[in-house]
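Design request, tokens follow.
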């Protein structure tokens, strides 16, 4: 049975990084588009797959898994011997990947969310509080200053190889580009190099250009 991905068809949110792992690992899959505006993710049928009513979800021959980062880890483990290696084999090397992935979730994401919350106010008919935005950007900048040091020691966040820890950051790539701010490329040369390399990966460029499309129907 071919793997099924329940997700949006556009490159956004957790659907994007799961689709990217599928592309990097060259995993065939069927895309089942979930219409978020029609609240398909909240229907009783879908809630049997994810009780929180969110995408993405995968169905791998009856094995149901939700939460994008968990799905990415599962796919990287199951298909370790094909496509791009996204997880190292060594215990210590794997621990460093998990450390970097935890930093993304506990440090990078919360700081970026604060920036996004303020920049998103005009869409809700609210004015941007420039003082709050400046504070949020300063907090994010402080996190990126630490990234600058880390990335001065090796090419990627957990070593010299691209891993899931780096890939997870691409969940924010489109909102960052849409913000019109250059905080990812102006903080320091190491962060700039790393970020430009991430957003230039062939699999990512193709995904952004074409949207999420299943490889089998």
């Amino acid at each position: 049975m071919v793997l099924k991905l329940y997700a949006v068809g556009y490159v956004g949110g957790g659907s994007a990084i799961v689709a990217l792992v599928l592309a990097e690992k060259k995993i065939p899959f069927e895309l089942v588009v979930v219409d978020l505006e029609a609240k398909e993710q909240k229907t009783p049928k879908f809630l049997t797959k994810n009780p929180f009513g969110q995408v993405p979800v995968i169905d791998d021959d009856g094995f149901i898994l939700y939460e994008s980062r968990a799905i990415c880890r599962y796919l990287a483990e199951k298909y370790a011997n094909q496509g791009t290696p996204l997880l190292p084999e060594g215990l210590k090397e794997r621990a460093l990947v998990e450390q970097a992935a935890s930093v993304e979730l506990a440090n990078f994401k919360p700081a970026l969310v604060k920036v996004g919350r303020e920049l998103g106010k005009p869409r809700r008919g609210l004015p941007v509080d420039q003082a709050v935005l400046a504070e949020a950007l300063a907090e994010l900048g402080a996190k990126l200053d630490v990234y600058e040091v880390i990335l001065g020691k090796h090419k990627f966040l957990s070593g010299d190889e691209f891993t899931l820890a780096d890939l997870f950051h691409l969940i924010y790539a489109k909102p960052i580009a849409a913000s019109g701010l250059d905080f990812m490329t102006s903080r320091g040369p190491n962060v700039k190099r790393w970020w430009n390399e991430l957003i230039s990966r062939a699999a990512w460029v193709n995904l952004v250009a074409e949207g999420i499309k299943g490889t089998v129907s």
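Comment from the thread starter after seeing the answer: thanks! Residues 91-119 form the longest helix (29 residues).
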